[in-house]
Amino acid sequence: MAVETTAKGRAQKTLGKESADTEGNSPIVQMISRAQQLYSLPTVAMEVLQLTSNEHANVAQIKECIQRDPAMTVKVLKVVNSPLFGLAGEISDLNQALALLGIKPLKMLVLGFSLPREMLQGIEAEVLAQYWQFSLTKGVAAREIALLLGEKYGDEVFIAGLLSELGALVLLQDLGDAYANFAAKVLQEEADLAEMEWATLGFDHGILGCRLLQSWHLPDALIQVIREGHPSSGVSFERLAGQAMTLRLAHNLAEVLVHHRLELMPKFLEQLAQATQYGADVVENLVIDIQEKLYQLASVLSVSLPEGVNYDDVVSQAYVQLSQVAESAAAPLAKASQVSQRIVESTEGKSLVDSMQQLVQNGMTPLKEEVKAAPVLSDSASQSDEPTAELLVEISASMQRCRDQRRDFSLALFGINDFEDFVMMAGIDEVEALRHVIAVLIDRLSDGIGRVIPCGDKRIAVLMEYHDRHQTVSIARQALDTLGVWAQRRSAQQGADVALSCGVASTCVPPKSLPAKEIFQAALRCSLAASNGGGNAVKSIELL
Which residue(s) pair with 501 in the sheet? Predict the structure, then answer.
């Protein structure tokens, strides 16, 4: 799946996992670590996931597993018998459900309705009702649009829609009223929640939710659909297909219906026509079906929704506004900029940032066992590898430019292994020659984008603006391969072998809360881990 490299070029790159021997310290990484400790899938859901991970799953085993949880059995059968599935006749047991639905849809249902209870406790009823309204509307809309497209993956996108807002629950639990009030402010201003999350927190709830789903070992294909289906992924609609395209349509329609973002109706109609060759004439019936099934499904699941919601009225209002768009074609961009600044500088925006900072400082440190998994810097290493003030200024300036453009930033640290031994054998002049070769290679491999800055005696820092983790690691490996050939020739002349290593730390749209020194230390940990492997190695980490 292609990914845009425009101002929103974040996409599934943000789902890259950290190197096995390193660990990030940014707020979202810490929040994921905390969420993994607090929330886990119920036993039945985990067993079903394990059983169905094999394509030759035993139907009898799956049925027996689900039946051990009577509440889950009743819930699945209620949903299967709801108008959402439109099956002929009532399904009375799991045998019939399996026969008519098949294993995959049943598996998705079990996973979709197995959210940890802890995630739903302590949240105000009104806020929780709003969460369910958007999640269910998005899920039902995805399934109805799939039917409109004539596709058979309606069950999968229905579950993808249900799970896609999971990150919002984590933020509500961790940040409480600060996040709830912020989200309400965003809705009041008719702004995009994910964009405002990026502006204040440096990440959005979609990324947070996908990372949690990854930790539960849910199918990668499902997680990719959820991430690409969200507009904040940076993947343009034209590049989407199948389930991700369907979920994007459902998301935009849910934004119109639930959050009253009427200005998105033209985009939805354009995308719908592009995907289905249908136009506004089908929207009215589509919305009626969505609202009817939404409330029936909410009743089946015993979920409370806000009262007095009439999606048909919302669509009528959207069409009225649509007729007025031509009168103020330039207004939306100017308005969007003003609204964004107003939200970021609002009391709610500042309170959210303060709450996140307080959470990071006071309650979101990884467990001791997890800390031990990361390489620990010795006192001598910490002293000799401290970044200079000049380097930190350069890193900060580069991250700010990438932040302004909503682009990736990477820092690569090249190091000479066994530095003292190498200097004794080859001399300091050989170190300078090596630095010059690295600078030339980086300039050539990055098309002049990589900026080389000295970093102490034995390291060289390379600032890679607009380069993600994958691109930077690829360049680093090419550089090390070329340096290896060069070093062999030099060692024949100088009589001194040299081994190099590289550590890469990347961030997709550098968050405001990420200090320059933190990304430097992450790259340094990777560099030390790479050097332990004997040289010519690259270790990397992505900080969200």
Answer: 415, 537
Q: Is 520's pLDDT higher than 90?
A: yes
- For β-strands 451-455 and 459-465, DSSP reports them as antiparallel
- At 287-325, the pLDDT tens digits run 888 888 888 777 767 677 777 677 877 777 777 766 554
Residue 216 carries which DSSP code? Answer: T
Structure token digits, residue 254: 């849910």
Tokens coding 126: 């009104």
Confidence of residue 330 (pLDDT cuts 50, 70, 90): very low
CB 108 within 8 A of CB 243: no
What is the SS3 assignment for 486-506? HHHHHHHHHCCCCCEEEEEEE
DSSP result, 55-96: TT--HHHHHHHHHTSHHHHHHHHHHHTSTTT--SS---SHHH
Q: Nearest Cα to 507, choosing from 422, 426, 411?
A: 411
Q: Write down the mean pLDDT value for the chain.
A: 77
**DSSP-assigned states of every residue in 242-309:** HHHHHHHHHHHHHHHHHH--GGGHHHHHHHHHHHHS--GGGHHHHHHHHHHHHHHHHHHTT----SS-
Angle at 210 between CA 157 and CA 73, to 5 degrees: 55
Long-range contacts of 73-78 (CB under 8 A, 24+ apart): 75/113, 75/300, 75/301, 76/106, 76/109, 76/110, 76/113, 78/300, 78/301
CA-wise closest residue to 115 among 11, 57, 39, 17 = 39
Place of tokens 């597993």: 65
Q: CA–CA separation, 398 vs 404, rounded Å? A: 10
pLDDT, tens only, 202-216: 888 988 888 888 888
Question: How far is the C-alpha of 265 from the C-alpha of 443, rounded, in Å?
Answer: 46
Cα separation, 63 vs 91, in Å, equals: 14
Residue 9 · residue 234 · CB < 8 Å: yes
Q: How long a stretch of residues is the chain?
A: 544
Quote the crossing angle between the two packed helices 205-215 and 220-228, to the nearest 10°: 180
Residue spans of alpha helices (H) in 192-231: 193-200, 205-215, 220-228
Q: What is the dihedral of CA 231, 351, 116, 228, to 10 degrees?
A: 10
